[in-house]
Write a structure and sequence with these properties.
2 copies of one chain form a homodimer. Chain A has about 260 residues and is an alpha+beta fold. Chain A contains 8 helices and 15 strands. Chain A folds into 2 domains: about 140 residues, Fructose-1,6-Bisphosphatase, Chain A, domain 1; about 110 residues, 3-Layer(aba) Sandwich (D-Maltodextrin-Binding Protein, domain 2). In chain A, strands 4-3-5-6-7-8-9-10 form an 8-stranded mixed sheet, with helices on both faces. Chain A has a 5-stranded mixed sheet with strand order 12-11-13-15-14, with helices on both faces. Chain A is globular and about 50 Å long.
Chain lengths: ~260, ~260
């Protein structure tokens, strides 16, 4: 099946990125501030750039008709109607502080929506990979099928986000905080790994804003094939990023939207 | 040397706790809310209780004259002037959400101050252990000597805390946020592992409040023997917990205190 070829190729892309990234982790490395002059420190490292180069080189050689959209090197137009949407190190702040909530994100987008998603954590050697046929976690402990847990209401929900104020404007902060105060528990510092925890059934809601397409497209198949739902804060598709809410249970999603839809 | 015996025994305590805890991680387990009726959800699990029982049983058998102070089962008076101060799972919220920032904390307190500290992460199989002779990280990659990094000012500092508002009252939140806005970068969700990242030289400041003695005593030798400093928000000893600031560099510590000493 074509999708099996795509899965095998996505695994090779993630392998290649992981090989590049691992030696940089927890080393003293150069960090460049992409946001210099802007409000927020926006770090990028050699690991980000070299990993995206490795991924792009493989795609250009083996899938020359496919397009590429990557965080560090932008858009490469293809002719196949298929685009690989990639973030080599999503969560660079986690990466440079020695934490492991970062990951390599790889989506295959066909006709505008992601049909395959990979979240790879090369240091923990955990790989989340999903298509419409299912979502799986591959790790040292083997392969397990992912599934979200039931969560009927916001009051029962564990909520995650990366940061309480960096990525939210003032009205978003207020909406988020109202939701948080109704939830059972809120954890910050999640980065892309928060979506993995949701797919595993340990987190019920992930709420973020200011995402780019490469921050979210790989995560959508993982959450959806685990039984969850990912939309913007109005319940619409969020392939382009922006304000995003992921939920493991449609009931918690509907209830949380009431806090966010404003 | 007596301290070598103590280190060997502390390693056995951590081994015993890890054996108990590992099977509970990322399983569907019962969670009891210790804070029922209070403002904040305060979870405790069988992992917390069984691990502390294992540690206490070993101490009572092999060090019958030593005292014990543990999060789950309180104080056991000894006659030796030495007290084992333990938190079997520090970071239960991380634990129940499938994250790895939790750890087993074991301090040996002699004459009122901790002389030996262990932070053990049994799932990642990382163990931080320190005495006045030095701080070390044992992991699959071997044994490395820990050392904090230079950080001359708050503007260069990476700041960590567990949560932006759960553990801070209103004035503490304001002080923390003013400090955070001056720092290069703030990461939340650290739990005890944040102090390990500081000892490794990837984080410069950890600021927390409402700590108990067992939340901090094990971490003090780890930070100090790595070249850092741990005090309360007025620069005084913090063996009893409360408001705590850890810094990798005395200059960043002094500068950060100005935001917190209020």
């Amino acid at each position: 099946m074509a999708i099996d070829d795509d899965i095998a190729f996505a695994n090779r892309l993630a392998d290649a990125a992981g090989e590049v990234i691992r030696p940089y982790f927890r080393r003293k490395i150069d960090i460049v501030d992409k946001g210099r002059g802007e409000a927020m420190f926006d770090p990028v490292t050699e690991a980000d750039k070299r990993a995206e180069e490795a991924i792009r080189a493989l795609i250009k050689r083996e899938r020359p008709d496919d397009g590429i959209l990557g965080e560090e090197y932008g858009e490469h137009e293809g002719s196949s109607g298929r685009v690989w949407v990639i973030d080599p190190v999503d969560g660079t702040r986690a990466f440079i502080t020695g934490q492991t909530q970062w990951g390599t994100l790889i989506a295959l987008n066909e006709g505008g929506s992601p049909v395959l998603g990979v979240l790879d954590q090369p240091v923990l050697r955990e790989r989340f990979i999903a298509t419409a046929a299912g979502a799986f976690l591959h790790s040292a402990e083997g392969k397990i099928r992912l599934g979200t847990r039931a969560c009927a209401s916001v009051a029962e929900a564990v909520l995650m986000s990366t940061h309480p104020w960096n990525y939210f404007d003032e009205s978003e902060q207020l909406a988020f905080r109202a939701l948080s105060q109704t939830c059972l528990l809120t954890r910050f510092g999640g980065d892309c790994y928060a979506y993995g925890l949701l797919a595993m059934g340990f987190v019920d809601l992930v709420v973020e804003a200011r995402l780019k397409p490469w921050d979210i497209q790989a995560l959508i198949p993982i959450v959806e094939a685990s039984g969850g739902v990912v939309t913007d804060w109005r319940g619409q598709p969020c392939f382009e990023g922006g304000r995003v809410i992921a939920a493991g249970d449609k009931r918690a999603h509907a209830a949380a939207l009431k806090f966010l839809a404003g």
